[in-house]
Design brief:
Radius of gyration: 32 Å
Number of strands: 19
Distance between the termini: 41 Å
Largest sheet: 6 strands, antiparallel
Strand content: 15-25%
Number of helices: 19
Length: 521
């Protein structure tokens, strides 16, 4: 792994479809890094679709090995042998004494490296053993033995590497080789293997060391028109598309915006954000009110900026990894534990991060790390935060409950269970609300308002009220815009932010109105 955060290239190899021998690997960097199962000459016909009738485990002929000596250790296999190789792995050793498991098993991915015609010029990622292989297969039609040249430049990484930033690079290399083959016959000419190998060697070295690559290919003996062809490739960080930010989302800082202004302290994503944070007046105003508590609608009111404009600014920060989004913290919130929470019990780095974030490096509480991590095992599904605190008799002076829950949400340990109110009434002609014909609510699936008789509801419906007085009505009549949102598609957090009331006040309004059920999802 290099300093800039890009994954390290382990192997680069060129795969081709030979008209007589089938898939081969003429060049690999480093040499002998790709493992192919050898096959006898009688098995070669199976590459054309014939079924292999011989013993999959029989040894290959010596003469065939000599015939393929110029292919840099490449060995061939049939489709039938692929199935056997995957079932029974023999502990082969290469000439350097390394296990075959450290090499790339070409048999398991050859149908993707040399694929069907529908997958040509598409970015393909395949996993095999300890490696992740990215490739971009190319087919060039022309005056060839089978009227087409099929090849693929493949890049191999560690199995757990984040290779999204290499997608454009792999595609660019494939398209570049296609242009060089069409213009100068780089791959079909045997003399092209030398400059091609040199390019592959420097490609691995330069991208792993500097994250960029620039070279001039010496093609004087191959194509006079392409005597000095320059190749320039540079890695760029990959950023996911920003999420859909709502008014009830709470932005949480995950970088220090003060340090982001200092060039010496900038990381990959901060480099793109440093100048924006310094010179963009909107970002400067929005960042001022990102305190991990204010939601988007409140930030818009505090900055006196339109909510849509604030959302655009937050999307900009989210795109470059400067913030993340959580829900509004309340003690009535209900959370569901995810299986990722098990990582807290065997990951020392996560434990230190959690303790540092929740306690402020030990300054905001006197709870030990062992006790804090143990709290993750006490969280139960379908329990509100308040019920969890009472059930475990937690001392809120010892740690910050809000930060504890927020940490779990940010790392995917907790999932917020939202409450969706559903109105079980129908509208009357006079603008009021009358109970539905079903009458009694379903006690098994929801909680409904109690203590409000049918007579009292009828008296309320007889009175005609203007929309301006409905919200403040002591009779519990809701505003029309609130009634429209009680269809099961808007949760309490969203409704409370829209009408600018806290969740408790909204809940009391719904209870006073009656005929409301609650669905937790």
């Amino acid at each position: 792994m290099i300093d800039s955060g890009f994954p390290e290239i382990k192997v680069v190899f060129l795969a081709q479809f030979h008209p007589d021998l089938g898939p081969i690997v003429p060049i690999s960097v480093p040499d002998d890094a790709v493992d192919l199962e050898q096959k006898t000459c009688s098995e070669t016909s199976s590459m054309n679709g014939d079924d292999h009738q011989g013993d999959p485990g029989e040894e290959t002929a010596t003469g065939h090995n000599l015939a393929l000596g110029s292919l840099h250790g490449s060995r061939l296999t049939s489709n039938e042998q692929d199935r056997v190789v995957h079932l029974i792995k023999r502990p082969n050793q290469n000439k350097n004494g390394n296990s075959a498991d450290d090499k790339i098993d070409f048999n398991s991915i050859q149908t993707l490296v040399i694929p069907k015609i529908t997958l040509f010029e598409r970015l393909i990622t395949a996993h095999t053993g300890k490696h992740k292989v990215m490739c971009y297969p190319i087919a060039v039609e022309g005056n060839y033995q089978r009227n087409v040249l099929i090849f693929n430049m493949c890049f191999a990484f560690d199995i757990d590497a984040d290779t999204k930033c290499y997608g454009p690079v792999v595609k660019r290399v494939g398209c570049l080789l296609k242009e060089l083959e069409i213009g100068g016959k780089l791959l079909s000419n045997p003399a092209g293997q030398r400059p091609l190998r040199r390019m592959m060697q420097q490609l691995v070295t330069k991208l792993n060391t500097h994250g960029e690559y620039q070279i001039e290919l010496d093609m004087r003996g191959i194509s006079p028109s392409l005597a000095a062809t320059g190749v320039s490739i540079k890695l760029f960080p990959h950023y996911e598309s920003p999420v859909d930010i709502k008014a009830y989302h709470v932005p949480v800082r995950i970088i220090d915006f003060g340090l982001a202004r200092l060039k010496s302290a900038q990381t990959v994503y901060q480099t793109h954000m440093g100048d924006d944070i310094i010179w963009d007046l909107l970002l400067e105003r929005v960042i001022r009110y990102i305190d991990n508590v204010n939601h988007v609608a409140r930030i818009a009111r505090l900055t006196q900026v339109r909510e849509e404009t604030v959302v655009l600014a937050l999307k900009h920060l989210d795109y470059y990894g400067c913030i993340t989004l959580v829900d509004i913290f309340q003690f009535s919130n209900v959370y569901e534990v995810q299986h990722q929470a098990m990582r807290m019990f065997d990951n020392a780095w996560l434990q230190r991060e959690c303790y540092s974030y929740v306690t402020g490096d030990g300054e905001a509480g006197d709870i030990s790390m062992y006790e804090l991590i143990g709290l993750f095992a006490t969280v139960r599904d379908r329990r509100s935060v308040a019920e969890w605190i009472i059930e475990n008799r937690l001392n809120l002076k010892r740690f910050d409950v809000r930060r504890f829950v927020m940490f779990g949400v940010m790392y995917g340990f907790f999932r917020r269970v939202y409450c969706y109110p559903i109105l079980r009434t129908v509208s009357a002609a006079g603008g009021g609300e009358v109970p539905a014909e079903s009458g009694e609510p379903d006690n098994d699936q929801s909680s409904t308002a109690d203590g409000k008789s049918a007579e009292k509801d009828s008296e309320t419906d007889d009175k005609t009220k203007s929309p301006a007085n409905e919200a403040a009505s002591p009779e519990g009549v809701l505003e029309p815009r609130v009634l429209q949102m009680l269809d099961g598609t808007h949760h309490l957090d969203e409704i409370s932010v829209i009408i600018d009331k806290d969740t408790l006040a909204l809940y009391e309004m719904l209870e006073a109105h009656g005929g409301v059920e609650y669905l937790y999802l």
